[in-house]
Amino acid sequence: MHTAHKHSDYYTLKSARLLRQFDRHFVRATRRLAHHHGEELAAELTAETRRRFEQIIPELPYIGGSANYFTPVMVINGWLVSLHRAMAERGLSAEDTARVAFEATDDFFSSKPQWLLRLFGRLAFTGPVRRAFERQASRSQQRRYPGDFVYEIEADSHGHLAMVFSECAVNKFYTDQGVEELAPWCNFFDVSYSRLMGMGLDANTTIGQGCDHCRLDYCHGRATRIPPLVAQLER
Predict the structure, then answer these.
(1) Alpha-carbon distance 225 to 191, whole Å?
(2) Coil, helix or strand for 218?
(3) What's the CA gap between 117 and 166, in Å, rounded?
(4) Secondary structure of 129-175 as H, E, C letters
(5) Average model confidence (pLDDT) for the chain?
(6) What is the pLDDT of residue 171?
(7) Helix residue spans in the chain (DSSP H)
(8) CA 79, CA 77: separation in Å to the nearest integer?
(9) Is 200 helix (H, G, I), strand (E, B) or coil?
(10) What residue ranges of the chain have pLDDT lower than 50?
(11) What is the DSSP letter of 222?
(12) Cross-strand bridge partners of residue 161
């Protein structure tokens, strides 16, 4: 009972910190909203997104807390779901939401020094990082948390690494929140960091596009292969 209570309160107890993070980082999305929809509507959407995010914090799925490398992904998707609901109320589409989020993500990574991004891209293929994700992947197979990812790691000694997901926490969250229309763009974040870090991602197989699994296939130094629906956001 104590453990269950601890899990249910995980995000709620961090509400103030999560809202500060939102205020600090969502400014990039606000700028992109202003670019596409004007400053007045951008200000309205930002305020509404923040209000909705505060409400959704208790509903974020607990997937292991700080022990799970993907917990921040769920927080960011809380922002995305909140933004989409605010935009949908004004007649804007899931693609409109995904475009703003994709551009803001690119802005975030592009603001970092290129040498640092490339360094992180190389580190992702090192033995210690791979083994850390292999341990987490093994834990995911235990299915301790219903809302979690379930995945395996495939890797070789030639700069190739793949994460193969049989269950996707992001898509589960979209379904629980009734926003399945966001699912086709569930991997835009991975595309953004991959091409700036030189990680050579091929993410054309995703549960969000109706496949029975997701495959994030990385090859260090290869050009990132942009899925058609993500490429569509850049038009």
Answers:
(1) 8
(2) strand
(3) 29
(4) HHHHHHHHHHHHCCCCCCCCCEEEEEECCCCEEEEEEEECHHHHHHH
(5) 93
(6) 97
(7) 2-8, 15-25, 27-37, 39-56, 71-88, 94-110, 114-123, 127-140, 169-177, 188-197, 228-231
(8) 5
(9) coil
(10) 1-5
(11) S
(12) 155, 218
Nearest alpha carbon to residue 101 among 116, 117, 122, 82: 82
* pLDDT for residue 6: 55
The CA distance from 106 to 180, in Å, is 23
Q: What are 46's two structure tokens? A: 């930002």
Token pair in block for residue 16: 């103030």
Torsion (CA) 190, 152, 144, 136 in degrees, nearest 10: -70
- And the tokens for 61? 């799925």
pLDDT at residue 131, as a whole number? 93
> Structure tokens of 196?
């700036």
Report the 10 Å Cβ neighbour count for 71. 19
pLDDT one-digit tens code per residue, 173-230: 999 999 999 999 999 999 999 999 999 999 999 999 999 999 999 998 899 999 898 8
Report how far residue 44's alpha carbon sits from residue 171's, in angstroms, rounded to the nearest whole number: 27
